[in-house]
Write the structure tokens for this entry.
Amino acid sequence: MTDRPKISIIVPVYNSEAFLERCFGSILDQSYDNVELIVVNDRSPDDSNRIIEAHARSDPRVVPVEHETNRGLHVSRMTGFRQATGDYIGYVDSDDWVPANTFETALNLLSDHEADFVRFNFRLVDSDGNPLPDNFRSPTERNAFASGIDYLEMKFYPSMWSYLHARQLWEKALPFFPEERFIGEDNLTSFILAFFAGKCVSTPERLYYYATNPASLMREGSVANVRTQIDDRHRILVLLDAFLKKHGDRARPAYARLVHDNFGLIIDQMLPRLAPEEKAQAALHLLEKFGPLIQAQGYAGVTRYQQTRQALDTLQSSLSWRLLEPVRRGKRFLQDSYQKRTASL
């Protein structure tokens, strides 16, 4: 690591003008100031561009980029990386912000551990910055890993905004990122970046403020959004499966866990927000998409198996009689694959 490595922070912007001053200010006022702020305006229809241009005029570290059409968060980050000149790449969502010591702390950890990336903890807040209950699984102690594969198998957290990556990881991974719009895109991006990493480190220090957005929560509660979540997450898992088949299956156990995690996320957090009939429609669609994936991956550890089986039991108890058979079929897939795997151990 050079004495003063540059950090490029990518901030995609869409309909977030009310939060941009706070977001940009938290990045530009860091205790470590060798940063460049790559702002990707994803064809935002509000007044965001005026704010972006004002910051670019007043601070040469701000690099504005504008999409001709709205392309989504995943492609916006890819666009941001192509403009970045930093040795390390970080990410902040436009309605979030970071404490003043975030990047100095992250760089020190990278240097101390000679690591390719660092993953840090976050604080959940409302849009005014008030702390909220944190029910997310988070690291409780600092951990160093010999490789990104080891990290994937033990401590994988997908959210891209909780990472600082070495530039060379992006250079290796970028060819495997499709120019597509996804929901849940971090499952793909952070997995492949970690796959190419050598040493890495995670820390429980809370170096990011993640703000909840009531409008987003309302959208997530629609059956159309849940179906899109199912389709997009399935598409991402199919892409990762193809990637692992081409590059070796060293991370296959982590991938199997990711399949189960995404399945459980939809059942535990998305389906309960729907009305009963909508829940039934979405549940059938989920089982059609994820049933074969669960069957193909099979055993993902006893705890993961039990959690997935419990999720299916919960789902079955909430559906009417005419919708029970697809759930039972999903449970049989899971049971059969588990028994076959354990019989071979």
